[in-house]
Amino acid sequence: MSGELNITDQLCFLTARLECTDKEEGVSVGTGFFVEFTDNQNRIIPVLITNRHVVQGSTTGVFVLTDSNEDGTPRIGKYTKLILDSFESRWIPHPDPALDLCAIPLAPLLNMVRKPFFYRALNPGLIATSEDMRELSVLEEVVFVGYPIGLWDQTNNMPVVRRGVLATLPSLDYEGRKEFLIDAACFPGSSGSPVLLCSVGPYVTKGGAVMWEGRPRVKLLGVLWGGPEYTVDGKLEVKPIPTRSSPVLSIGIPIHLGNVIKAELILGFAAILERIAESD
Question: Which of 94, 154, 207, 270, CA to CA, is 20 to 30 A from 105?
Answer without folding.
Answer: 154
